[in-house]
Automatic annotation (TrEMBL), chain A:
The chain crosses the membrane at residues 12-34, 64-83, 95-115, 135-160, 189-212, 224-250, 262-279. Belongs to the binding-protein-dependent transport system permease family. LivHM subfamily. Signal peptide: none annotated. This is Branched-chain amino acid ABC transporter permease. It comes from the Bacteria. GO terms for cellular component: plasma membrane.
């Protein structure tokens, strides 16, 4: 059963990576913006949830909901006040600005929370497991993370393809100038997209905070995994991002099984192999 | 087709009232003047044709009216309200619709969704009303059978139809058509002219830039000639076509 164990472990880990990557994939798909502060924003969300549970004494679910709203507003404001000014034909300014934002957030967290490792307390949920088959049980927390990732992708797809907001997203992604001529307020569409991206990232933050301890310095590594998941899956495709996360998780789990030191390396190697074999990713969006 | 009018027009248009006014609109790109103090008026429900050689500033004129470009000087007044400072999306909502010379559909949306976006955001319709209205516009432009195709997969004629249908979906009271007849066969062109006549008959004001002059003359009541960013002639179409300015521009007869 050990091979099967590894695959289960990899798929579950993939759910976590997919959650890291969803917000990144979302705003890249709509705005062609690569948000280098994405990992640090996940960390910021994790710390905000931590504060809401400890300082405000809220239960984890309520704290998460509060932070979802907070991060949505933060994303909206961030786009309107900062990112909007640098979006344009040149891709360098947004990269520089989000890189700067990453540094600001890291140091801000260091200042506010210190360098100690923290964890979100989820009580018995953290350590309980469910039996899938005799002799095969999986942790409830990782399973929930995977289910949440699938649900989040399904929900975002529903928004994209079944609502007027989603049509505005897709129309603006296709051609922002024409979208404006059709009465769409491009600035608001972009701001909502960034808000949504950060709101989704709160789910990633909660999963991150429950499954392992975190400190202000680990954001960039989360960004790297998220980025790899997006690229492996194919730019602009949310289901692709989920698949990309799972490929990355599987590669790490298999690599780790062969030699524990190879876990991270195996993930990066899988990323490079996909880049060489399918440069546009496994499931690229139908872009012409 | 019955009932299209009340959906295209949210307000009763009074014949003879001024729809759109351009007051001394100027725009230059560096040393090149693309609009030189242009004065232009569109009456309510009027169909106005615009001709002129390539580079005369015709498409620039539309970009200025729709807000894609801001004029260096001058004012644009729509139904009595100064819209010079408004964004493109606000102008769309205020009743200006536009089709592009090179069709620019949202390629990754279905034909229906292209219209739905325009009706929901530009037309300010509710979901239910938008579906109805879009159905009518698809019908009017002959696209109903292709409603669920991806816009990017359409052939040229259908892309032109979609361009028109999407502009109509925003429920414009002033419709700007940019060389919509170019590249069509005679039969296709005839069909298009009939569609535009229908739209015009329902009271929508039209400004139509066109090189296919016979199509233009079949619809418009007044003709404006642009050259070097200036209005060089305007008036009754047949008289303008025989004018010295037009001969000079198109035939090279010295003035």
């Amino acid at each position: 059963m050990s091979g099967f164990d590894t695959i289960i472990e990899g798929v579950l880990l993939g759910g976590v990576y997919a959650l890291f990557a969803l917000g990144l994939s979302l705003i890249f798909g709509i705005m062609r913006l690569v948000n280098l502060a994405h990992g640090d924003l996940i960390l910021l969300a994790a710390y905000l949830v931590l504060s809401a549970t400890t300082a405000l004494g809220l239960p984890l679910a309520a704290a998460s909901l509060l932070v979802v709203i907070t991060m949505f507003v933060l994303g909206f404001v961030l786009q309107r006040l900062v990112l909007e000014r640098v979006l344009g034909d040149d891709i360098l300014p947004p990269l520089l600005v989000t890189f700067g934002l990453s540094i600001v957030i890291q140091n801000g967290l260091l200042l506010g929370y210190g360098a100690d490792s923290r964890r979100l307390q989820a009580g018995a949920f953290e350590s309980s497991s469910v039996a899938l088959a005799p002799g095969l049980s999986v942790g409830l927390a990782p399973l929930t993370a995977l289910v949440t990732a699938v649900a989040a992708v399904a929900l975002l797809q529903l928004i994209f393809y079944r609502t007027s907001l989603g049509r505005a997203f897709r129309a603006t992604a296709d051609n922002p100038a024409i979208a404006q001529l059709m009465g769409i307020n491009e600035r608001n569409v972009y701001a909502i997209a960034v808000g949504l991206s950060l709101a989704v990232s709160v789910i990633a933050a909660v999963v991150l905070g429950i499954r392992a301890s975190f400190d202000p310095s680990i954001g960039p590594a989360r960004l790297l995994y998220a980025f790899e998941a997006v690229i492996i899956g194919g730019l602009g495709s949310l289901w692709g991002t989920l698949a990309g996360g799972i490929v990355l998780g599987l590669a790490q789990a298999i690599g780790g099984r062969i030699n524990p030191e190879w876990q991270i390396l195996a993930g990066h190697l899988a990323f490079l192999v996909v880049l060489m074999v399918r440069p546009r990713g496994l499931f690229p969006a139908r872009r012409t | 087709m019955r009932g299209v009018a009340e959906h295209l027009l949210s307000a009763e248009t009074r014949c003879g009232a001024t729809m759109l006014e351009l007051h001394a609109i100027s725009k230059r790109f560096g040393a090149i003047v693309v609009a030189d103090a242009i004065d232009l008026t569109l009456s309510s429900g009027e169909a106005l044709g615009v001709i002129g050689p390539n580079g005369a500033g015709k498409s620039t004129l539309f970009n200025l009216i729709t807000g894609l470009l801001r004029p260096d000087a001058g004012r644009i007044v729509l139904e009595g309200i100064d819209i010079t400072g408004l964004s493109p999306e606000a102008r769309c909502r205020a009743g200006i619709g536009r089709s592009f010379q090179i069709p620019q559909p949202f390629d990754h949306l279905s034909v229906f969704e292209n219209l739905a976006v325009a009706a929901l955001f530009g037309g300010g319709l509710s979901e239910v009303d938008a579906i109805q209205h879009c159905g009518r516009m698809l019908d009017l432009t002959g696209l109903e059978a292709k409603a669920n195709r991806l816009a990017g997969s359409l052939p040229l004629l259908d892309r032109k139809r979609l361009e028109l249908a999407r502009a109509l979906a925003t429920r414009p009271r002033t419709l700007l058509l940019d060389e919509i007849a170019g590249g069509l066969t005679d039969a296709e062109c005839h069909e298009l002219v009939e569609t535009i006549r229908t739209i015009h008959a329902e009271g929508v004001g039209i400004i139509w830039i066109e090189h296919v002059v016979h199509a233009l003359l079949a619809v418009v009541q007044r003709l404006v000639v642009l050259n070097f960013g200036k209005v060089v002639a305007q008036g009754v179409p047949n008289e303008v076509m025989r004018s010295r300015e037009v001969e000079t521009i198109y035939m090279g007869v010295p003035a």
